[in-house]
Amino acid sequence: MKVTFNGLQREVAHAAELLPGRFFCGIGVCFGCVAEINGVSEVRACRHQLRDGDVIRTKP
C-alpha cells in the first residue's frame, strides 16, 4: 500500500513496517503501536487494515 508516514511517502504491506520496535503484540493490548491514522487519534496501528492513501502520524 502507498501511504504517508510522518509526511513521507512509503510503500508497505502492514503498519508494523513503519513503527519502531516492529515486533509487538499485534492484538491491540500493549499500546506500542498507537498512532494517528487519517486524522483519527489513538488508533492501534497493528489492528488497522491499511489502504492506499492512508496518512499515519506518530509525531506531534
From TrEMBL:
InterPro entries: 2Fe-2S-bd_N, 2Fe-2S_ferredoxin-like_sf. Keywords: Oxidoreductase. This is 2Fe-2S iron-sulfur cluster-binding protein.
